[in-house]
Amino acid sequence: MSPEDASTLESGEGWSRLILVGDIDIGSVPHLKPLVSTLIAQEPRATLLDLSKVAFLDSSGLGLIAEVARASRTVSG
Known about the structure:
Elements: H1 3-6, E1 8-12, E2 15-24, H2 29-42, E3 46-57, H3 59-76
Helix pairs in contact: 2-3
């Protein structure tokens, strides 16, 4: 199972949780962008990024995390 297939987005009233799974690298990040775009579009007041199931993270993965962080700051003020 690839990271983009196993990674999920959970949401509730005012919150979102992005659960990333497996290797988050240059090959998987483009496939994860739609999930991140959905999270950003929801404009949650609270965002949790769950990396507990990530086995490997390269600089592309760090860029994805930075994108989520920037979007979260923009929404929260």
